[in-house]
Amino acid sequence: MGKSTHTDLPDDTGDSGAREAATWFARLLDPATSQSDYARFRDWLDADERHAEAYARIERLWGQAAAEPEPLRAGGTRRTFLKTAGGVLLLAGIGASWTAGMRRPDFSTGTGEIRTVSLSDGSTALLSAGSAISVDFHGSTRSVVLHTGEAYFTVTPNAGRPFVVRAGPLKATALGTAYSVSITPERLSVAVTEHDVRVEVGAQSLDLGEGDAVEYEKGSLGSVIREETEGRLGWRQRQLVFLSRPLGEVVAELNRWRDGRLVMLDQALADRRVTAIIDVNDIARIDRTLEQGLPITLTNYTPLLTLVSARR
Amino acid sequence: MRAVSVIELLPVYLSLRKRLLSTISRLVRSHAAAEDLTQDTFVRLWERRSVPVDPAHLKNYVLRTGRNLALDFRRRERIAPFVQGIEHLDFIADQAPTPEDTAAARQKLQALSAAIEALPARARQVFVLARIDGLTYVEIGEKLGISPKTVFSHMVAALEKLDSSCHPDD
């Protein structure tokens, strides 16, 4: 039998399962646990189903207790923080079907290009890669149409001239000063970082506050999403942040930043959700970054066509 | 201390990513696992972004998070062969991080944080040094001036109390 260095093994007689489980867990924390101790652990697990349940509970609480930076203190809400950080509105757009019949856009960006457009009233539109907008400012109208991609608007306040961004059937009116809109073939979304925005589509209408976002998908407006707005704007620093997004959507977004085309044929893989940050600053090494950050393997078929499959 | 925005978190994480990968690689044999854990570090940081952090300690926090994920991966790897075939414990071998991004998960996390703060002082110290700083019983004993055996009993007490705080009916 191996010698226990500084721990006692659980007493099998009469102790509650919880104490035994805690004792076993504490014992197994030692990397120098002996083979015979492991064997006794297994015997204990096999002895009663409740032992395994109790042990599982300790494992879970251990997992949850990871890396608390400091003990949690009350106070300090998200909204307070966002006010000091400034505001942003994000709108993500919907693809080709919405733009059919549109005239040529006034401003657009190519693959991997980010560009700021200054509007005549002092407002600005920061266009993400592969994006296009048209602008119509006259009289009391300040109107922008987002054809494709994503754009972040900082709006000069003017109560008499509503600033409205349209993307497909969706209309986002600034009640404040900063928001972003984006379009993908499946989804439109709006996110706000400063003051409020009214989002309207068909008969639905929703007011978003600072830090809020909403998506419009399959014909209806979703519920308000909080806390993700900063992530959705990572592209401004060329960090694409994907928070539990389907891989298919991630690939579609990447195609706006990377020359050539990534194609995914496996629908199951496309539906799989991932959370990752992809740094698109170093475009030359992007494929390596993608293979490291996502559960995929890339195979080049031609210089412009790359197949995406599940990582082996 | 205040909640950290992704705008702050991103550059810190990215500037540390190489170092994270190398720290994690020293702890974990498989290169693929090390890459995964480096990504998981970001996921974990993101999921906990509303927990207040002293901005001066952000870098250490990132590195510690990565190191702890690696240590825990190793611990579960070590234990996995001995829990094979036990249904309740399949998740140990799975090595997939539990998603924490739901309202229910966040509530659980707050309850657990409160329970940790409510532990008797020594038990809390031992638990935090083991879980957050990844110290061994010997190292904790040296730091606190107590024997490893005493450290062990404090750990058992901490785990038992946390378990009963989070599951008062059991």
Helix/strand layout:
The complex is a heterodimer of chains A (312) and B (170).
Chain A (H helix, E strand, L loop, with lengths): L16 H12 L6 H13 L1 H16 L13 H8 L4 E3 L3 H4 L7 E2 L6 E4 L5 E4 L4 E7 L2 E14 L8 E5 L2 E5 L3 E6 L3 E8 L2 E5 L2 E5 L3 E6 L2 E2 L3 E2 L2 H4 L6 E8 H8 L6 E4 L2 H5 L1 E7 L6 H8 L2 E7 L2 E6 L2
Parallel strand pairs in A: 6-7, 17-20
Antiparallel strand pairs in A: 1-6, 1-10, 2-5, 3-4, 4-6, 5-6, 6-9, 7-8, 8-11, 9-10, 10-13, 11-12, 13-14, 13-15, 16-18, 19-20
Chain B lengths: L5 H22 L3 H17 L10 H22 L10 H5 L8 H15 L3 H11 L5 H8 L3 H19 L4
Helix pairs in contact in B: 1-2, 1-3, 2-3, 5-8, 6-8, 7-8
Structural features, described:
- The complex is a heterodimer of chains A (312) and B (170).
- With 312 residues, chain A is α+β, with helices and mostly antiparallel strands.
- In chain A, the strands form three sheets. Chain A has a 15-stranded mixed beta sheet that branches. A three-stranded mixed beta sheet of chain A has the order 17-20-19.
- In chain A, a hairpin with a 5-residue loop joins strand 3 and strand 4.
- In chain A, helix 1 packs across helix 3 and helix 2 packs across helix 3.
- The longest helix of chain A is centred in the first third of the chain and has 16 residues.
- The two termini of chain A are 42 Å apart.
- With 170 residues, chain B is mainly alpha-helical.
- Chain B folds into two domains: 95 residues, Rna Polymerase Sigma Factor, Chain: A; 69 residues, Winged helix-like DNA-binding domain superfamily/Winged helix DNA-binding domain (Arc Repressor Mutant, subunit A), CATH 1.10.10.10.
- Chain B is built from eight helices and no strands.
- The model of chain B has no long low-confidence stretch (mean pLDDT 82).
- At the A-B interface, helix 1, helix 2, helix 3, helix 4 and strand 16 of A face helix 1, helix 2, helix 3, helix 5 and helix 6 of B.
